[in-house]
Amino acid sequence: MTRRQLVVLVALTLIWGLNWPVMKLGVSGLPAAPQAYPPLTFRALSMLLGVPVLALALVALRVPFGVPRSERRELLALTAANMLVWHVVIIVAVQQLSSGRSAILGYTMPIFAALWGAWVFGDRLTPRQWFGVAAAALGVALLLASEFTRLAGAPLAAGAIVLAAAIWAYGTHRLRRTASRLPLLTIVFWMTVLTTLVMVLLAVAFERQAWRLPEPHVAFAIGFNAVLVFGFAHAAWFYLARTMPPVASGISVMLIPVLGTFAGAALLGEALHWQDHAAMLAIVVAIAAVLLRR
Predict the structure, then answer these.
(1) What pTM value is reported for the model?
(2) How far is C-alpha 68 from the geometric centre of its chain's CA atoms?
């Protein structure tokens, strides 16, 4: 990794890791006084406020906004695989599961990225990379070991997150191999805009009767997502996904579900078990196996 990639990775891990309990707080309410907020509306508001932040970044960096007609079909495909499915599924499913376990299921993505690469895109993984994938899978299994009973009560939510993770993994390969000549920030901006439009339409169609002014903790969660997640983290992730091999970029962010699990325990009182600590060790080994020099 270059120094720039490392700095981006550390910032991304902190923001996305902390966002799991923040997102859970926004859509489910305080632990002492749970009060659900419409999840699609929560996401739509976050993205509506995040789009201007991204636009300011493009203006400041003098990145063009224009998308030639020949690039639009590819942009739609990248949007569906990298953002649209993931955001629709995760914001609804997180209400059914703990924030930490939602993060763990979501970050099965690197495992799917390795499988997509080997079976579909012709990647030849080294034994050390396969070892890293196996260690990451072990970490996920350990983190989920104490949650099988809970997950059994929400099988559709758990299955939907895993499916969304598999589609996201495919999108990572598609982004790295895209023939688009658009600047990365231009792609990120329009993917966010298109996903925002869909989120707004879904919120209007399914949650209009439940709309209300956000409580202070919901407003905080919306602001956190708007500025840090959609204003920075997504661009940071797509930068890593486009400049690193999919397995390396995927496993490099595997500390995010660990941070999400421990942050959920600290902020929301979610229970921790010995498997959480063992999983952290397994995931650190996975990251080291993929990223460190030989």
Answers:
(1) 0.83
(2) 28
Average pLDDT, the chain: 84
Question: What is the reported pLDDT for 167?
Answer: 94
* Three-class secondary structure of residue 29 per DSSP: strand
Structure tokens, 202: 């879904």
Rg of the chain in Å (alpha carbons)? 18
Task: Give the count of alpha carbons within 13 A of 185, CB side only.
Answer: 16
- Dihedral (CA of 44, 49, 54, 58) sign: positive
Q: 185 and 57 in contact (C-beta within 8 Å)?
A: yes
Helix (H, G, I), strand (E, B) or coil at 213: coil
d(CA 193, CA 259): 28
Question: What is the DSSP code (8-state) at residue 107?
Answer: T
Cα separation, 186 vs 276, whole angstroms:
38
CA distance linking residue 253 with residue 251, whole number of Å? 5
Alpha helices in the chain (DSSP H): 3-28, 39-61, 72-79, 85-93, 99-106, 109-119, 127-145, 148-152, 155-176, 184-207, 216-224, 234-243, 246-252, 255-268, 274-291
Task: Answer for the pair 206, 39: CB distance below 8 angstroms, yes or no.
Answer: no
Cα dihedral sign, 15-18-24-27: negative
Domain holding 118, by residue range, is 3-291
Worst-scoring range by mean pLDDT, 67-76, 95-104, 172-181?
Answer: 95-104
Q: How far apart are CA 91 and CA 146, in angstroms?
A: 23
Q: How many domains does the chain have?
A: 1
Nearest-angstrom CA–CA distance, 52 and 281 = 39
Q: Determine the straight-line distance between the first and last CA of the chain, rounded to whole angstroms.
A: 13
Q: How far is residue 145's CA from residue 138's CA, in Å, rounded to a whole number?
A: 10
